Amino acid sequence: MSSLEYAQARMQGRLGARPDAASWRELDAIDNLGAYLDALQRTPLRSWVAGLDARADLHEIDLRLRERFRAHVGEVARWSPPQWRPAVLWLSRLLDLPAMVHLVSGGAALPWMAREPELRRLAERSGSGRAAAIPDFLRPDPRRAGTRAAAPDPGGARAAWLAGWQRRWPATDAETSQGLLAIAAKVLRHLQQFRRATPREAWHVRAGLERELRAVFRRSALRPEAAFAYLGLAALGLERLRAQLVRRALLRREPTLA
């Protein structure tokens, strides 16, 4: 079963089950990674940390969380009407975009990249072999005179991803198109602000984006835009969870930091 009504009900249910501010404060008070993971098992966040235990290192944490987010994007795509599934699934490519830019720019392959299904083909190659494995959406436009096989910079990669996302939209009305582009603009603006923010300011910037996406989700009930606002909110929640897990993993590795 998939329809805008079904997707809306499932997304609202998931958002309603997220930990509230009091629950986050209780979790934040737990410093030990093992105890923190145990506490998460009593919350709706338990599915996000499936497969992690107190021995997990930073790469293992990132790998598992990326796997879970990809799986959730696929879940939301299945809830959605069939014509919108390609555009929803395209969000998964954002997870690997910074590493892809690093690799196709000639950067050294790092050990953890071999464990990532979307990066392995690039990481295992070098020179012309790596150039041949560049994803199509990151390839330079051959119609442009003088175009080299160089990788785009991060801004160019984001623009290439955005163009690929728009190509995956079904035929839609102007209001929906404008709504989707407005969501993308909010996220891009957040990235620019976040990059300039001090550590003290960063969480306020993040909270601002969360408020904006929640407002879009409410306004877009039973519209295609809701799925993308929802996944933005899910990504922010996962970002917060990742920060907490990484901090505890670092404290375990460097007890003097405590």
Number of helices: 12
Total beta strand runs:
0
* Strand content bin: under 5%
Estimate the mean pLDDT confidence.
Answer: 89
Main β sheet profile:
none
Q: Give the termini separation.
A: 49 Å
Oligomer classification:
single chain
Question: Which blocks of ≥5 consecutive residues have pLDDT under 50?
Answer: 144-149
Q: How many distinct domains? A: 1
Return Rg in Å: 19 Å
SSE class: mainly alpha
Percent of residues in helices comes to: 55-70%
Tell me the overall shape.
globular
* Helix-strand string: HHHHHHHHHHHH
Key features of this structure:
258 residues, 12 helices
Give me the secondary-structure topology.
Elements: H1 4-16, H2 21-28, H3 33-40, H4 58-79, H5 85-89, H6 97-104, H7 120-123, H8 127-132, H9 154-167, H10 174-196, H11 199-219, H12 225-253
Helix pairs in contact: 1-12, 4-12, 10-11, 10-12, 11-12
Describe this structure in words.
It is a single chain. This protein has 258 residues and is mainly alpha-helical. It is built from twelve helices and no strands. Helix 1 runs parallel beside helix 12, helix 4 packs antiparallel against helix 12 and helix 10 packs parallel to helix 12.
